[in-house]
Structure prediction request, 285 residues.
Amino acid sequence: MKEYISSDSIANTIRMLRTQHSGSFLIAEGDTDSRVWKNLVDSTKCCVENAYNKDNAVKVLNILEKDNFAGVLAVVDADFDILEETVLLSQNLLLTDTHDLETMLLKSPALEKVLREHGSAEKIEIFTKAKDIRQTLWESAKIIGYLRWASLKFNYCLKFEDLAFNKFVDDRTLILNESKLIQTVKNHSQKPGLDEQEIRANMEKLKTDTQDMWHVCCGPDMIAILSIALCKALGSCNSKQVEPNVLKINLRLAYDSAHFRETKLYKSIQTWEQTNKPFQVLSNP
Prediction:
């Protein structure tokens, strides 16, 4: 399995590639991220390498930095690092503007392109008279975000992969039922004995009035809710047409360099380029 490729193996691959590529290397944390980056970087100047997970990406960078390997940077999802005020230990390690790369795509005009492709103009018009679509998505997704964060912070070790979102998200209003969410996740994680009130209390402890919800919400959760929306609230698709993996591809293809140039991450890479001349990552506008 590719996800079990070691950091040493990936670092060795990059070392070998140096004989063919004298430019920069960008280490991405996953397959989707790698595909996005390959559309955004100048492929003649920068080689994108998939580390298969965040921990691996950071470890690969550390290995290469210890070897004084020049021209390498890693870009990983911020996850909850910004909210936790985690200090980055390397100038060659950059974080996404929002929780992850998927939320960066959703925050951009790529979302509107996907809605035009898969949604019903009439249903979207009716829905947006009462609610903003993007805000509606993160209002529901933030509840899952706090549950994910609480799971990490308080060692619940809950499982969120392959959740049945239709068990706790209303397909017409997109409102998320918190109690049903917690019960579904407990059952999915085979931990029915966990105390729901304790979980809720710990979720509440994490909340402040100043938090940016784009750092609380996880992209896969927002995409799963969008998938439900396009079958009922915002469209008339069948679930296969707009399953999350399809929407991830569509969002990736809809996101272009003009969107990326408006981000903090773009400016951070520009700063990295200035500090690490002659290495370049970005295509010229």
